[in-house]
Amino acid sequence: MSDDTSKRGAAPPSLEGAAWLHRPETARVFAALGGKGGETRAVGGAVRDALLGLPVADVDFATTIVPDKVMARARKAGLKAIPTGLVHGTVTVVADGTSFEVTTLRRDVETFGRHATVAFTEDWAEDARRRDFTLNALYAGADGAVFDPLGGYQDLISGRVRFIGDAAMRIREDYLRILRFFRFNAFYGKGRFDADGLKACARERAGLRLLSAERVASELKRLLVAPRAAEAMSVSFDHGLLCDILGGVPRLARFDRLIGIELALGCDPNAVLRLAALAVFVPGDAKRIARRFKLSNAEQALLALGGEPFDHVLPDEAAAKRKLYALGPERYASRVLLAWADSAAPATDPAWHRAATLAERWEVPDFPLRGPDIMALGDFSGPQIGEMLRRVEQHWIDGGFTQDRDELLALAEAMAKSSA
pTM to 2 decimals? Predict the structure, then answer.
């Protein structure tokens, strides 16, 4: 199959002026692997995102040069070469401190999930056909010319996420592609999800159980913060996938409300907070999900906020200040967002908006007294000192944090005399 795309719709534009193509480290890799006896192109995400005008971070390369010669050419050019995946034809080339994956064109002879037997090729279309989605089977040369052997550009600009070839076969090669199908739809899709892809994902969903917790968690976190995450979750639920992924019933309405609130506030989404809104009903759910996805203790603590009952004292300003003082800015912001999502208030509610942005207007004060202040008032034991500080602090909190140090010392002294 040729690289000619004239029969597949609009031909992709050149990326000649793309800044990432002209970064010194990228140019050094192209130069090292260019010339006679081989051809090298950038592939996948860098090309896809550049065509959409999105920022490009990581750049991967595909080449007709076999791995041992890739390493030899890289080292001859003064670059570091690491044989990270020779069995699959992948070498990591390091230029100016930046790592690039360089993979020799290949075709899969046999596949066993992620473990495939491959044969190298010089046919770009053959290499493209073993990839996951058409919009990822895009290549760009050092001159910016884009090669599109499978019509992926037309799918990209149409917002259609389409498996290459037989969708079920692509999924069986790596069951993580089920989650990737939903993530790519959530990031790049427009309109309805591809029907054939959905059917294949639903039929092959049992394969998700074969994946490691870490791989599922990583993919799920990326999906949760995608622009169309709410729609992706709803579609995955309708097709019987989401309950299998989460190990329980989702709270789709609360998840949708949280996303709407985040958009109204203009705040960046947090994947774990969104997971709390989606999957946590009671505190025990947080522990179960943390175990399921091998999350950190900090992530479990954030998840647990999703199981707390709706706090009816919010969004009252005085109550909000007490919450902010008790929880600190980060936990407070998360708790308010979840409480807001639990309430019936719309995303435009002014009182909830004030509560959510309280930390921007009000600096949390420091409690003016310390242990030595109480010790100076009499001969008290450690527990007595702690109890007296707690009572004075609570009085200060209930009073709206308005009393100064002298007033609080007078209160502590009165307490000390009454307990003598």
Answer: 0.89
